[in-house]
Description:
Layout: H1 21-48, H2 51-79, H3 91-121, H4 128-160, H5 177-206, H6 211-238, H7 246-255, E1 263-274, E2 277-286, H8 293-300, E3 306-315
Parallel strand pairs: 2-3
Antiparallel strand pairs: 1-2
Amino acid sequence: MNSEHDLSRWAHAHRYAAGNAAAERGTQLVLWITLATMFVEIVAGWLTHSMAVLADGWHMSSHALAIGLSAFAYRSARRYADDPRFAFGTWKIEILAGYTSAIVLLGVAATMLYSSLERLVQPESIRYGEAMAVAVGGLAVNLACALILGGAHEHGHDHDHAHGHPHEHAHDQHHDLNLQAAYVHVLTDALTSVLAIVALAGGWVYGWAWLDPAMGIVGAVLVGLWSRKLLLQTGNVLLDREMDHPVVAEIREVVESLAGGDVQITDLHVWRVGTGSYACAISLLTHDPALTPLQVREALGIHEEIQHATVEIHRCDQCPD
């Protein structure tokens, strides 16, 4: 074959995810807000000798680490988007960051649970005024960060569907799992602040010192459940464990309707290569001598989420005519 032939008709780029510029900007802004708040609380706690303020400042460092990881993942995925070493694009960098963030969240939940149980066994005096100020300030910061990330999610979602979709499905997950991980970290901090305010109010007004560690246990359980869900979502993508996804049934339906139904799928692999994008490798058995891989790919094109299809066709030579 002449090596000078134009291959553009058959070749295509492997950038299956367009990226989420709004989410990248949002996570970077939230990171700087979190770092600034953490620095102010640590300095204020050291100057005022308030352990409540100091502890909250160091607590925010774990969330700054996770949110920084999300921002770094967006930047890396964009930077290496055209690197040929990534066979199916760089989108899974973001998923790996989300998975790591979920593990960090589990550590946060375990720390909250341990500290709360320790406080139940060995109660300590609480400086309610300072602690309440920290909780209210932390809640305000986290609500602002949640609004920023929530806006980035809506913008990215709209961008995903800007070109329309002839077969929109309620089941299709168009969630940015990396952004979701950052969002869960912000919600975790906000939840901690809300529970702390309730507990501190009860302790301050009614003397219920046990309410503070009790709320900590409730928060730890909720954070643990959130992190478990995020681990399952990101883990399934990283392990390509999505052959039960409805898009697989759609592929089967399209292919088995070709050639008057004279097509059987002998092998099928489907995996995700973007937030709402999939690749598939499929082997077919048919008697039809006219069926071509190009016809199969064109038929699958009715579903825009199928971005890459490798098709292999075998002619049956062991079946009666």
